[in-house]
Each structure stands twice: as structure tokens, then as C-alpha cells.
Amino acid sequence: MAPIEIPNAVIDALRHARHIAVLTGAGVSAESGVPTFRDAQTGLWSKFNPQELATREAFARNPKVVWEWYAYRRARVEHVAPNAGHYALAEMEKRVAQFTLITQNIDGLHERAGSRNIIELHGNIRRAKCFAEDVPVARWIDDGQIPPRCPRCGAYLRPDVVWFGEMLPPSALDAAFRAAQTCDVFFSIGTSGVVEPAASLPFLALRNGAVVIEVNPDATPFSASATLHLAAPSGIALPRVVECAWTADVRWNTARESG
Ligand code: BJW
Fold this sequence. Notes:
The structure is a single chain. By secondary structure, the protein is an alpha/beta fold. The strands form two sheets. The protein has a six-stranded parallel β-sheet with strand order 3-2-1-7-8-9, with helices on both faces. Mean pLDDT is 93; it is low at 250-259. α9 (201-207) links the parallel β7 and β8. The protein contains ten helices and nine strands. Ligand BJW binds at residues 25-27, 30-31, 36-39, 43, 54, 104, 106, 122, 161-168, 190-192, 194-197, 215-218, 220, 233-234.
């Protein structure tokens, strides 16, 4: 792979940014072994039909199959670890006054890598909520019933994720739009940019004057508009971004202080 070149103007923008906002998608977790959705060979939607698994109607038709599919994915996520891309974002957060990490991922890997200001747009696979009343449920009794029942009303529990046709959590969506409108630099990382409303965020940031950097080995509908497209896996590109923008500076400062 060709060395990753980051133009000086982008390094400057990162160093002087007061607010960096980041949108991540499934690609950022691919190097941890979590499958993406739309990659042709390995993506979940190449094997499973989203209409049969990731909609309210699908759950109503076949709650056991849907619950078990998510239980399988939950178990898989628990056995993987964050990768260098997740850690680089946690590192970036320490180096800027305001940092907003907007993720479409439900795997919790950003938190495990140490990121703090996280907006989860599509929920989290570790949580469940009541299918009837939409109320989050912290604990449930695992008495062998699949799906388990809501301890309050006895309806089915479902994973606390956002399925197609469902509204995103309004406060998360508001915060994400605000971050895209007010940041100086915006990253779009590991997302195909086809699922709305998340797909609009990089365009919104661009319209509001941000420098927008896309990290994705493949081109997306946003690539041609990006200030910079880094065509590399995020586990390689993001540590390089942090190194170019900040680490060199830190080494230089240390050398100066001790010299
Ligand atoms: C790497 C890499 C490496 C690989 N490094 N990169 C306007 C127009 C048209 C349609 C709509 C619209 N507004 C709403 C809709 C309907 C719908 C939608 O967008 N449909 C489109 C698909 C056409 N949106 C919704 O229904 C949303 N709700 C909503 O808007 O409510 C109001 C409303 C409803 C209906 C009509 C109008 C308004 C809800 C969306 C919920 C999405 N849910 C899912 C499932 C979550 C639970 C689960 O996990 O099972 O969320 S679907 C799936 O897609 C998941 C993801 O978060 C989401 C985005 O996918 P992502 O992350 O981009 O993954 P991939 O696989 O697509 O891409 C991975 C990328 O990584 C690739 O580009 C690779 O190249 C790259 N990559 N390795 C960096 N190492």
C-alpha cells in the first residue's frame, strides 16, 4: 500500500481545530473481526436479508429468529477487541478541546477503546428494550424464554438498536446534527454513506465550512466531495493521522523541554 500522505493544510486544520466531530460506521470495526453490512463477500447483508431481521415487522413475524440473530452477534462482539483505529480516535479526543464521536455502530468498541463523548445513533447491542412500550430494560430474567419478557409488562424484549423505518433517538440525532454544524474538522470513517440520516452528516459539515476527511478503502457517494479521501483501512490511516498531527509535535516539545 502506498504511504498515507496527509497534506500540510489538513495537518494544520487538525492542530488548530477547537472541535473535531467524527462519524464512524461498520468499517472501523472490520479490523476487529466484526463484519460490515454491505461488503460484497463478508458483509452481513450478503448472507442475510435485512427485511427479515432488521425491521419491526420482521421481529413481529419471527421474534425468536431475530432475538437469536442478535444474541449471536452480541456474543461475537464480546469476544473481539478494539483495533488501532478505535484507539487512535480515543487518543485524538485527548488532544482537542471538544471532540464528538458519532457512531452508527452498536458494538460498544469505541467505549472499550477509551472514547468518552460518544453519540450512539443506532443504539447498542448490549441493551434491550420492551417491544410494546419502547422502554429500556436494564436487567431481565434469563429463564430460557426466547425472546425474554419485559419484567414490567410481560411483552417481548427486543435489542435496543434502530431498525429500518424506525426513528433514531431524537436527542442523539440532535446532538449529531449540532456537532456536524459546529465542528472545524469532520471525519467520516468506515461507512458506505447510504443509510440516512447519518449519511447526510458529512455533507452538512462541509456546507458549514468544516474540513471533511473520509477514511475508507473504497469510494462512497461522499468521496468526490470530501476535502481529503484517505483510501486505506482505518486501523492504518487513523494512527498515521494522529502521528502526523500531534505526536511529532509532542516529541518535539519533549525534546525541547528536556534539552
Ligand atoms: C472500511 C474498512 C476498514 C471496510 N477501514 N473502512 C432518505 C432517503 C432514502 C431512504 C431514507 C431516507 N431517510 C430514511 C430512509 C430510510 C432508511 C435508509 O436510509 N435506507 C437506505 C438504505 C435507502 N433509514 C432509516 O430507516 C432510518 N430511520 C429513519 O430515518 O427514520 C425516519 C424515516 C423512516 C422511513 C422513511 C423516512 C424517514 C434508520 C436506519 C437504521 C439503520 N439500522 C442498521 C441496523 C442496526 C442494527 C443492526 O446492527 O442490526 O444500522 S442498518 C446498518 O446500516 C446498520 C449500520 O449502522 C448502517 C450503516 O452501515 P455502515 O456502517 O455504513 O456499514 P456498511 O457495511 O454499509 O459500510 C461499511 C464501509 O466500511 C464500506 O464502505 C467499506 O468500504 C468500509 N470499510 N473495511 C475503513 N478496515
